[in-house]
């Protein structure tokens, strides 16, 4: 389902997550104070805008309060990152993700009740884009614009079923997904048989169309 997402700060990390979200079909508002960065995003997001996200009036004029999520991708300016995060929460954005430079900044962001914090070197933009609205996707590696390899957790209703029953890796695969492996405890089953039963806490490594993975394992 298409969502509205604001990405604030379009340096390397912000640009990565913004363009990937746009490629996934979401409406993306990208904001930065540097005009050259904004111009570079033309055609790569829905709405590239030059503005100061630490100004509450700016955020309200852009209608961000009605967005589904906001990502604060501001780099080394800790004060601006914290101020922007506080404003986003105060105007009612339901889900706010903020990038942290270090554990100290991460702890500060948690104190102002940001919904998710991440260290950019640990979670790349493309991966964040794929698990922002699909928490079952633990890791993601893109192969093309619409195809990749995902490490996903299975839902309760999928446990106890075989890969064949889940339509994964069969010759008439409804979802056109291939199981590359199953992580089970400290072991991994490579190229699993289609009759392999999914057990509690198994993690699947799947190759397939991004949209289809979202449909099968999303909310």
Can you describe this structure?
Helix content is 28%, strand content 28%. It is of the alpha/beta class. The chain folds into two domains: 4-131, NAD(P)-binding Rossmann-like Domain (Rossmann fold, 3-Layer(aba) Sandwich); 137-217, Regulator of K+ conductance, C-terminal domain (Alpha-Beta Plaits, 2-Layer Sandwich). Helix 2 links the parallel strand 2 and strand 3. Helix 1 (12-23) crosses helix 6 (125-131).
Question: Terminal Cα separation, in Å?
Answer: 10 Å
What is the CA-based Rg, rounded? 19 Å
CATH class descriptor of the largest domain: Alpha Beta
Count of individual domains: 2
**DSSP strand tally:** 11
What share of residues are in beta strands?
25-35%
Which helices and strands, and how do they pair?
Blueprint: E1 4-8, H1 12-23, E2 27-32, H2 35-40, E3 47-50, H3 56-61, E4 69-72, H4 78-90, E5 96-100, H5 103-111, E6 116-119, H6 125-131, E7 137-144, E8 147-153, E9 177-184, E10 187-190, E11 203-209, H7 210-217
Parallel strand pairs: 1-2, 1-4, 2-3, 4-5, 5-6
Antiparallel strand pairs: 7-8, 8-11, 9-10, 9-11
Which descriptors would you attach to this protein?
single chain, alpha/beta, Rossmann fold, Alpha-Beta Plaits, 2 domains, 6-stranded parallel beta sheet, 11 strands, 28% strand, elongated
Summarize this structure briefly.
With 219 residues, this protein is α/β, with parallel strands linked by helices. Helices cover 28% and strands 28% of the residues.
């Amino acid at each position: 389902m298409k969502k509205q997402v604001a990405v604030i700060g379009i340096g390397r990390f912000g640009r990565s997550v913004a363009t990937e979200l746009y490629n996934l079909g979401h409406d993306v508002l990208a904001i930065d104070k540097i005009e050259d960065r904004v111009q570079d995003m033309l055609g790569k997001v829905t709405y590239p805008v030059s503005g100061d996200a630490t100004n509450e009036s700016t955020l309200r004029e852009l209608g961000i309060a009605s967005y589904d999520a906001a990502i604060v991708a501001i780099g080394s300016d800790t004060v601006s990152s914290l101020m922007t995060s506080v404003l986003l929460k105060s105007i009612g954005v339901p889900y706010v993700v903020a990038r942290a430079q270090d554990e100290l900044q991460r702890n500060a962001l948690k104190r102002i009740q940001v919904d998710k914090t991440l260290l950019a070197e640990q979670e790349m933009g493309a991966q964040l884009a794929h698990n922002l609205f699909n928490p079952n996707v633990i890791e993601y590696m893109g192969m093309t614009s619409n195809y990749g390899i995902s490490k996903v957790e299975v839902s309760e209703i999928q446990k106890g079923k075989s890969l064949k029953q889940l339509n994964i890796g069969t010759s008439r695969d409804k979802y056109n997904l291939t199981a590359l492996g199953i992580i089970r405890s400290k072991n991994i089953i490579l190229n699993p048989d289609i009759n392999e039963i999914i057990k509690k806490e198994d993690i699947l490594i799947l190759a397939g169309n991004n949209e289809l993975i979202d449909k099968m394992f999303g909310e």
